[in-house]
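Subgroup meeting minutes
Present: P.N., E.W., G.H.
Scribe: E.W.

1. P.N. recapped why we're keeping a running log of single-chain structure predictions: easier to compare across weeks, and new members can see raw inputs and outputs side by side.
2. G.H. added today's entry (377 aa).
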Amino acid sequence: MDFDLSWVLWGLPIAFVLGWLASRLDLRQLRIENRQAPKAYFRGLNFLLNEQQDKAIDAFIEAVQNDPDTSELHFALGNLFRRRGEYERAVRVHEHLLSRADLSREDRDRAQHALALDFLKAGLLDRAEDALRKLDGTSFEGEALLALLAIYERSRDWPQASVIAARLEALGQGDFNGRRAHYLCEQAAQASGEPAAQLLREAMRIAPTAARPALDMAAWQRGAGDQLAAFETLRALAAAAPVALPLAARPLAESALASGRQDQARQILQASYDALPSLDVLDGIAALETDAAAQRDWYVRHLQREPSLVAAAKWIAGEKLEHEQFHPQVQRALDHAVKPLTRYRCAACGFEARQHFWHCPGCQSWDSYPPRRVEEL
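Output recorded in log:
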């Protein structure tokens, strides 16, 4: 049988082509697998889970160098830099992502949001504001608006904060009427005369059950010499927000005394005290008494109802002791002991202060201070 050499001549090139195609397919598959699951990436995850952030960063840097086109590695690396406080490096990573022309719209918005967070954490508020405003109309719009709101509150730009709060409410992010009322009160505190009153009226309109607008309005009315109007404002507050009456008890009593409405004020304060005893409401009731002995009797009644070092100190201040010569020393010791008990405490972070705050100086929360003293909590 003769051997046909033509088969050999045809077979060798075909075998070469098939082998070349197979090698290319294998290399492509290997490249895809390495891109999907680079070893350095898994090492970085392992270090991250073990809270070894330095080694995790080194591993992610190696992974990025091996495959510079993988956006997820850049996001992981940038977030690690931000968590470690290396904001300049985090900014470079996210700006590099934004400079890529092949980045998807979703990843571009994500990188823009991450860049804004870098600036925000670094305290570069102007650059953070610019970066956040570029997220309008994206899936990160709600988060960006919340961050902008925090920036404007921090810089005390209350008009801009009001605009952002209204946008958040329109997006369905919650009820911001109470927050907007605070912004108006802050602006009123910086104004005077009728402009301040107009701001407070608007605050009372958008948040009729909020305590601060009514309290500030009553203070403005008392400053203007209209004690009766102040009493009526505080009486309306007692009906709309009875839980806030401890904050209004003393000015209510003083306005009642000045306008001849003692009986009405006593009825309001007595009803509140019977429902829930309060030291500030007790002070308001005592202030309505013209006789010093009658004032002290109220503190005795409170002590019969529940133990209170604050009430005891106030009662003993007007009493004659058996050894009266030691009364100043005893009173000074009691006053020193009750000081921590008369503070207000933030329900969000526990920050204590001698005065009641609407905006916690510790955690920046709004309305986080209950209107009751530490001893009553």
